[in-house]
Amino acid sequence: MSQLKPGTVANLKVAREVDFGYFLTNGTEEVLLHKSEQKGKLQLEEDVRVFLYLEKLGRLAATMAIPVVQIGTYGWCKVVEVKESLGVFVNIGISKDILIYKDDLPKLREVWPVVGGRLYITLKTDKNGRLLGKLATETVMEKQFKKADRSVFNQNVRGYVYRTLYSGSFIITEEGYRGFIHHSQRKTEPHLGDEVSGRVIDVKEDGTINVSLLKRGYESIAEDAEKIFMYLQERGGRMPYTDKSQPEDIEKRFAMSKGAFKRALGRLMKEGKIDQEDGWTHIKKQS
């Protein structure tokens, strides 16, 4: 008879009932199935399929909630808590949240997962038998990937960040494509486990894709124009910024380059919304 181990599924028999649950057995060992972890009334000698884990006091316990993630199997789990001194906790579908220790997370604290992020993980045990989460390696992720073809070029994609490097971030898209986001193709660095959306800017011969989180030119112009027009409205319809303003002044006020600023102004002028005069831009009075 194999030894009962945390992180695994076992088929056990109901040995006896107690006030706080049932003791289950494999013939040589017993484990507690607490009332809060059972599903319905059980009978003596009934066969029960359970997942095994260690309670806070280090005792082996059972639950009838069978998680997808077990020792040797992988699945997506949501981050439910972040503790800088320990790491992050994920929900695998049982009452006990599982820790991914900080040593198994990126060295750069700023890209640690945040609450709500999703991670592709398996389980492992420490020397005391306590369950810990373990991020999937690149070799494991490769089994999930599908090859993209040229038809996805310039298409929008969504996916989750599963790996971060200094040069950029790797994602797996909803379709299963392996995507890379170079640091020049994003405004801010996403966290591990973040869901991101972007567009395909290259399809490689090996079926992987390069993704940009930056907006398309026409999308960016429309967004910048709206931002400038709202600023004008907040200032009573006038502002001391024009297409002749200094780049550093534009960057400081609007967080955009002078080129982007000029393109947005051009859009607003073409739409008949603004005029420029004597170093000022103002909302054009509608006749």
TrEMBL record:
Q: Where is the S1 motif domain?
A: 154-216
Q: Which InterPro entries match?
A: CvfB_fam (IPR014464), CvfB_S1_2nd (IPR048588), CvfB_S1_3rd (IPR048587), CvfB_S1_st (IPR039566), CvfB_WH (IPR040764), NA-bd_OB-fold (IPR012340), S1_domain (IPR003029), WH-like_DNA-bd_sf (IPR036388)
* Annotated SUPFAM superfamilies: Nucleic acid-binding proteins
Which Pfam families does the UniProt record give?
CvfB_1st, CvfB_2nd, S1_2, WHD_CvfB
Give the family per the record: Belongs to the CvfB family.
Its recorded name reads S1-like domain-containing RNA-binding protein
Tell me the organism: Pallidibacillus thermolactis
